[in-house]
Structures
1.
Amino acid sequence: MKRWSLLIFLLLYFRAAIAEDGYRLWLRYDKIVNSKLLYTYLNQVNTIYFPAGTPVLDAARQELLSGLEGLLDKKINTDNNASASSLLIFTKAHAPLNLPALALKYEDLGKEGFYINSTKRSIIITANTDTGILYGVFHFLRLLQTGQSLEHLDITSVPRIQHRILNHWDNLNRSVERGYAGISIWNWHTLPEYIDQRYIDYARANASIGINGTVLTNVNANALVLTKDYLLKVKALADVFRPYGIKVYLTARFSAPIEIGKLSTADPLNDTVKAWWNAKAKEIYQLIPDFGGFLVKANSEGQPGPQSYQRTHADGANMLADAVAPYGGIVMWRAFVYSNASPEDRFKQAYNEFKPLDGQFRANVLLQVKNGPIDFQPREPVSPLFGAMPKTPLMMEFQITQEYLGQSTQLVYEAPLFKEVLETDTYQGGKGATVARVIDGDLHHYPQTGIAGVANIGNDRNWTGHPFGQANWYAFGRLAWNYELSAAQIADEWIKQTFSCDTMLVATTQKIMLSSYEAMVNYMTPLGLHHIMGTGHHYGPAPWITNAGRPDWNPVYYHRADTVGLGFDRTASGSNALAQYAPGMQQRFMDVHTTPEAFLLWFHHVPWNFKMKSGRTLWEELCYRYNSGVAAAKVMQQQWNTLERRVDKERFKQVQMLLAIQVKEASWWRNACLLYFQTFSKMPIPRQYEQPDHTLEYYKGLHFPYAPGNG
Ligand code: BDP
């Protein structure tokens, strides 16, 4: 007997210690350990009525069964008799007879929404469409995974935004631009025959958070993906994703007619060029009838575009839009452009370029705008384009991959950043015109709405390199579906599904996550500093750089430190970028005394002795912020250490080691930046703070020739 109990103990011990490698993401479906909860669920979820028979419904049914079997640790029975079942899943068209009237209007659910209802007798998941059912099933599983009561459910859930898309910056050679999680998950070499299980799990994960589109290729595009051989590979992926409600999109290289079509021009107004794209679209749609369309980076950072032919962005976008329109496709045209030649403040360039084109785009074109005017910096004011183009659907481009946010060595939870942007009032046409209301079409009644996130996914076993990178993928999807969810709520869900429902673990991990964004802003770019990272790889601080390829690639262009002070004057006395905003927004940033300090140096050149709200001078405040950022990173580290017994060994250790790197990198940012800015302020770093452990020359001398993600 004793021996047996020892064996059982050992088995349990090793089970707990078995590596959790992170592959299963938030879809772990391990048996619920809370016995009371398990008992309730077991009573509530018995026999299931779930007529399937279409690829989407089959996928949903399969997910539900395997999810429930894992969570409840029992075999689940299905029954064709609705009245014998306690869990009923059906589309409107297949509602079983004799069902009590449901308090829902199917019209309200649209094409993707779902409704979940529970009474004493049964739980119902219903929708207009198969895809709605798929989303409803995932939501139901989430309720179980996060330990929620199934009593009196009355949930109507409909996405606010139509196109919820991941952008992969993946190259055909499998390198990933700004990818920090291994190489591309698309193995082009073995496609189309070889279907990696990862493609299916990728689709499941996306469907579980409502993502319904994926751009497979880098915006710095390669025309080859549009050739027959590659299109067959793309088709294979599209076939895998379709049952999960996900459409594929490709980046279109504007010069493709020349490169693979052997034409002498790519002029969008040339008839032969138009015919080439029309034929290309036809070819694609013959293979992939639900192909989503194209994403285009044109005339930006060396990419070809219509301006090479003295045509406008609208000319270029419309030509492609016409090619895909007969098949219901869309074109996502990126607003991330800034001219090589123009001496204009880079902040202003996208607006100057696109605002005059409002109203000139076809109905199936969306303009994809990065959240800020520069480039995914730790904290940016919102792009002045939001709200400024009532006749052109603007879609959001967020960056999930942490190019400027600690890459994959740092735990930075991005939901607070996404929320801050979406909730910003643009004041266009008056108060309450939030960015969210711009992009969901509420404000200007856009016919199409969209949101994109630059993916952080690679072929690393845990998908995202840093185990907490998964939370950013998850948060993007959840907010794309419903931007009203709070960052805390999303973290709570994610932690419970990814780790466990242990109260202490959830509370502590949530604290870590929610403090991480502000901590990072403070130790990298406090008070509105921006673009002061290393050149090329963008890893680490380098505010001293003056020799990058062009003026507006240099950190000194952005921080403008001198003996007087710090920051970029974008008011009327400077570049006047402020004038691009609506009056309410201008008001916010106009006066150096009332500008929110988080954005101060974005808009003002502020004297070193300027009195901040805290009573400290600008210089002292800078020292304070950098130090509080480092201190916060250390707190995150201590908090994580308290969780040793509550997290599986493998992920505990991984995160622990990464947090040590994060603290090191935070101190490095602080030391390097303060030493450098000190050469202008000529003021000491107050004694109460930890003093830099090296000289400025030391920090300037650091080089990272093989830092990841740089092509
Ligand atoms: C920048 C990246 C660069 C991308 C570019 C883009 O450094 O690699 O190609 O954005 O969005 O942030 O096109």
Note: The chain has a mean pLDDT of 96.
2.
Amino acid sequence: MLTGKKILLAVTGSIAAYKSAYLVRLLTSAGADVRVVLSPGALEFITPLTFSTLSGNPVHSDFTEDKNSGVWTRHVDMALWADLMIIAPASANTLSKMASGQSDNFLLAVYMSNRCHVMIAPAMDHDMFLHEATQQNLAKLIDFGHQIIRPGEGSLASGLHGIGRMAEPAEIVREVIGHFHPDLPLINKKAIVTAGPTYERIDPVRFVGNFSSGKMGFAIAEQLAARGADVTLVSGPSVLKTNHPGIRRIDVMTAAEMYQACIENFDASDIAVMAAAVADYTPTHVASEKIKKNDDQWSLTFEKTVDIAASLGKLKRKDQILVGFALETEHEEKHAFVKLTKKNFDFIVLNSLRDEGAGFGTDTNKISLIWPDNKRQNFGLKSKSKVAADIVAEIEQLTHP
Ligand code: CTP
């Protein structure tokens, strides 16, 4: 999504500089050509070698790399090369200098010479961020037309808790993609997708699970992200990896953990797709020690897990879209329709284990979509990626009626 885009990343003196290494990896894997400049402060936290290795380009931090060579690095050329400049992390000191037009280092000279869009991801301690001086500097930089990617809240390097953590690299990449592709259909939508199985603990070494691979949910997350959505993927145990750099992944083990992650993220979501094969029952007691094979027979008692989809269905606002799945072995359409209405889905995706090539573990699926007004649509056997595209196309229709 960023093929051919020239991105200049300016890294300043903050412990969050380590996150920028990962940012470079995400940007380059999305196809961008990335060049990095470092402030003198950044050199205290991270080496140029890290960035030159990850970006595949030389890294500059001074007007001249060798004082005796008479060769200097031209800040103007570097600034004019870029389609986009990102300052991440942006320290309070650099923000202040940018706002007041100081250019006493190479990074600032590049910034002052640039003509492209500028994104700024501040990183500093809570009180420094909230200080009136910083807030005034940020207001001024917004006035200049720059885009601020707000820091998050959490524990800070100082040991304090508060605002000031640099935005996560995936979030910055989403902003970058949004900047270059403002017409993507789901660009301002937040989505949550559940995927994979859940494992319910029996004792420290055993669990009850199911055969879900997560392939369908992961494919849906990719398709939503490719259309510009800000995707949170809540995944049960799965060996799968996400490809799209903007997908935020929360790994969980049990139905209870998956429920917690969904509840925390649902309110802010426009779209929720429940593709996980959530365990319906969990052992009533989890043994603290490994259960020994003393008896010839062994039985466990189980209790119901919380129904995540049904819980979200109860909370769902009119402006939210909730999509569920039904994997059935008999009376497929009847069972799916009951789930659709009971869980308050906008539509349900039905797959039958009686269809060859459909269901768990396969790379293909054969689905039908069912709506509350009983409208139905059947699709042929396709790759899970194409099935995901069909499902997301329906979601897109609902977001733009
Ligand atoms: N689901 C969920 N939480 C659960 C159980 C199911 O979120 N504890 C979601 C699934 O992700 C799916 C939908 O509900 O989107 C239907 O799941 P399914 O297992 O087919 O149905 P159940 O309601 O569990 O009914 P049953 O197992 O009896 O068929």
Note: Residues 194, 255, 274, 276, 278, 280, 305, 307-309, 324-327, 339 surround cytidine-5'-triphosphate (CB under 6 Å).
